[in-house]
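Following up on my earlier thread - several people asked me to post the actual chain instead of describing it. Fair enough. Here it is, all 389 residues.
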Amino acid sequence: MVFQNSDARDPKRYLWMLGLIAPGCAILPPLLVGATGLPVFWWIGPIIVFVVIPLLDVAVGDDGSTPRERDYEVMSRDRYYRWCTYCFLPLQFSGLFVAAYLWADPGLDLCDKLGLAVTSGVVSGIGINAAHELGHRVERAERLLAKIALAQSGYGHFFVEHNRGHHVRVATPADPASARFGESLWRFLPRSIAGGLRSALRLERDRLARQNKRWWHPSNHIAQAWAMSAALFAGIALLFGPTVLVFLFLQALIGITLLETVNYIEHYGLLRQRRPDGRYERCSPRDSWNSDRLVTNVFLFHLQRHSDHHANPGRRYQTLRSSEAAPQLPAGYATMVLAALVPPVWRAVMDHRVLTHYDGDLSRANTGPGRRRPDAAAAVDDRARSGPR
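Reply from S.P.:
Thanks for posting it. Predicted structure:
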């Protein structure tokens, strides 16, 4: 069958607007609580992301649709897809201001304010994903929007580190955002957060030096992004009082943790192989974990098709393809985040998959500096031989 219209080229075309449910989460709580009287709706963010989405992933199943190459140019130029990400930002910041107004309300219980902070933090973390999509584009306006989207989390240096650091070093021991085999999430988080910050500062300093510019030059991408966060937080504090800063910093911390947990999932144990000249091979679909669950694909703008993203970072989200060569996660990202929080569960689910991906040869996996102890490797081999769990 030959498709004649843009709808047929992309069967998910009108589903992408569902990605705006995430930033809408912070606007929904007062409406839902007011309508039902149920305080549980202050926690609507984690409920949707970590309960509803995983259940829908199981019920709906895999995506199964991949854009055709002959449709690539048309889909890439179609501005409808861009507006799906542009619309994320006004909803994101409307929700943040609603939350700040409620955090300043002395009549709202602390538990309810904490629930709203967690909901805002989930939005903040998914906002980094929207910034991720926008920050990969060459258009100046979209790159500016990426920095604005990062203001809520205060993670503006991600704009520099992800594009010029992570994409260069991904799936190697040198990349702080690539988790090592056997490394728990709780050991990964401080290493990735601190390492990413150091790398971003170094990369931006070197870029400015090549242009004979000082650190405080107006073109400093990190300074620009951090200034946006400072202005946002200061403006909210002036409007609603300094007590809201506690909740602002809490939601930012939750957003950062969510983003880095997704980083942990995306490349756990994977390692690009070295060429004869000692350099690493070009990043291929085999170097990122994928999941093709339809609901999370739509919710996160195809972030789960991470292998094609790293192999072809210039592709816009709507054109990303599923790859048979990519190692596959057993569930969507939302479910895998919950597994990562409990290291024994994560290792039971993932370690044998890493071993299977490398035909049982642990030396081909990213184990980080040094060698693993033989007894630890043997224990992993035993788990691998026991098969999927």
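The two ends are 40 Å apart (CA to CA). That should answer part of your original question.
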